[in-house]
Write a structure and sequence with these properties.
The chain is an alpha+beta fold. The protein contains eight helices and eight strands. It has an eight-stranded antiparallel beta sheet, with helices on both faces. The longest helix has 28 residues. It is globular, with a radius of gyration of 18 Å.
């Protein structure tokens, strides 16, 4: 995975024209006043683009599959409204993701997150953040590849200022997290291609009729 900071005029590359009018002013402020801006490219994974699209479109189902695989951290996803869902790892990390734009191969998310005191690092204070992520992905001979451009603003202006000298640390933690999430989602995406029965019989899927309905609809060979 490779990463480079976005500086100077690269800010203008943000596709503001793709953002709905109701969110555009908020997104504009976030991009222009962001504390950190990074570009991340993840390592190719051997999973089909169509499988990943299914999982991106059904976060509740994806979260159940994640918990079934017993990855760490384990988190829950809840649909709050169309195109908006929240995540919670029950250990002090929460977030709300709103899908602002979506076409095959490109999604833009507005992320609002909070880490309680000590969640990210021992003795670290509680911190809230907002992030705009332009997420592009495609399929090549090497597999499923992604590129993310992110603009992040910490809710605490002083903390954002103090964190500037630690850009490499913040960048490294973001890269590590994005790479880990991408790798694991691709892993169970590949697993569904090879053996969907493993997930069909999972208690986590059977326990929620909505998840079970989504699973049956996506993997129609199981009525």
């Amino acid at each position: 995975m490779t990463t480079a900071p976005l500086i100077g005029q690269e800010k203008k590359l943000f596709p503001m024209d793709l953002i709905p009018d109701s969110y555009r002013s908020q997104v504009q402020v976030l991009v222009e006043r962001s504390d950190f801006q990074f570009k991340t490219s993840t390592i190719p994974k051997k999973v089909k683009l169509s499988s990943m699209e299914k999982l991106f479109d059904h976060p509740r189902l994806s979260a159940a599959m994640w918990r079934h695989c017993q990855f760490t951290p384990s988190f829950f996803a809840f649909e709050e409204a169309p195109n908006t869902f929240s995540i919670n790892d029950t250990k002090g990390l929460t977030g709300r993701l709103t899908l602002l734009y979506s076409v095959p191969g490109h999604r833009i998310y507005w992320v609002q997150g909070r880490a309680e005191a000590g969640r990210l690092k021992p003795f670290a204070p509680a911190v809230g953040a907002q992030m705009i992520t332009s997420y592009r992905y495609w399929e090549t001979e090497k597999g499923f590849e992604t590129q993310l451009d992110t603009w992040t603003k910490l809710d605490n202006a002083l903390l954002g200022f103090l964190a500037q000298p630690f850009r490499k640390y913040v960048q490294g933690r973001q890269d590590e997290f994005i790479g880990y999430i991408n790798s694991n989602i691709a892993l169970f995406g590949e697993s569904t291609e090879l053996n969907s029965i493993e997930f069909r019989d999972s208690g986590l899927i059977l326990a929620d009729p909505r998840i079970q309905r989504d699973f049956n609809r996506l993997y129609s060979k199981f009525p």
